[in-house]
Amino acid sequence: MKRKEVVLFMTVGTGTNLNSSEESSKTLARKLYYTIEKIRPIHVVFFASDKSKETIGYIEELFTMDNDEFIAGEDYQIVEISAIDDLNTCFEAYESKIWEFDYIDDENDYKIIMDYTSGTKTMSAAMASCGMFYSKDLISVGGDRSTGEVSRGTEIINYQNIYKIYDKFVLMRTRYNFNANRFMACIDMLNYIVDLNIHKESLLHLCKAYYAWDNMDFEEAYDNLRKVDANHIELSDIKNDIKFNLKALGNIMNSRSVNLKNCYILASLINNSIRRSEEFKYDDAIARLYRSFELIAQIELTKYNIKSSDIDVSILKQNNVSDEFILELEKTREDGKIRIGLEKDFLLLNELGNDLGKYFIENKSKIKDLTKKRNYSILAHGLDSLTKKDFDEFLKIVLNLSYSLDKDMKKFLNQTRFAKFDLKLKFNKNS
Known about the structure:
The chain has three domains: 7-160, Hypothetical protein VC1899 like domain (Restriction endonuclease-like) (Rossmann fold, 3-Layer(aba) Sandwich); 162-246, no CATH class; 255-431, no CATH class. The chain has helices spanning 22-39, 53-65, 87-104, 121-133, 163-179, 183-190, 200-214, 218-225, 239-254, 258-278, 282-302, 313-318, 323-330, 342-351, 355-362, 364-375, 388-405, 409-415; strands spanning 7-11, 43-48, 76-80, 112-115, 137-142, 156-159. The chain has a six-stranded mixed sheet, with helices on both faces. The chain contains 18 helices and six strands.
């Protein structure tokens, strides 16, 4: 047999029924011989039932008649499938050979072609599925079927272009990855879509927007989300979520109210921590909660025109902060500035008679325990790993404070919660 660097996978039918005639087997052999001669593979793998093995003997005879040879073990091999009507059995038989030639054999670079023309319906369906799953070339033999079967001499090899199926598969995986916050993976997959009927640009902008937002890059997120056309069928199930998210980002970017802008940023940060916890990244999640905790105090202090990064003592005096507290702050002055951290922020709020400061004092022991755990975290100053219980306790504190910070905080949290696709793929009903 003449060869090219290609491996040809083929199914071999069992005949029309248990009483298949010799002529039926010879007819099938001629079809398979035609395909082999056209493809010129280096090796053929036949998947056959025990009853269909004799067909391969007729193929050998056809090679001999053409002054060629077809040698078992060298030119071809037979993989016997006993359960020819079991989809999983057939699929796994094909899959094992793909692994053998693609992954186990490191010395050769094979191209694999899979012919699903013959065999039981189950064998053919499994071959087509396996070929699609592993991105292999799929072929079938067509021709004049006026007599019911493809007439001899009219055979044509049809290479099946299944890009639409691949694109649908990519779209499905994109939705799963998007819901899991793996936005860069989504972007990588979407770039492979070739079907012009899929609104790839909007999907790419969508994923870029949420990737940026997840990294707290609000400007980039807003710029991309504005370019998303949520009216496309692929986005129909998250259309309202996109609308709310766009409003939130719009307030962060354009609101004239500093407090409103800061509250939306805080809500984004809290939701960011919740997403990390859903991924079981509790150290990361608590690190973000810690920043949220600190930000709550900083936002509240801005209502007094106080910046924790540069304390103006005159403002403290105007608000009747005790001399003892001011003296303690003065001891920390460096480079002409007084800078305070999370605990001092809340203690200052307490000095100002603020409810958030009072909450901190009332829960100081519990809060100190939680912040101590955070400080010993691998992502802070220690080597400890935090738990879901640690996160849940810290989140409860942060949410209580945030609700006290602004009466609309639940709305802010809802509007900054990332959109999630309905994984039932309802959009397929209209595509």
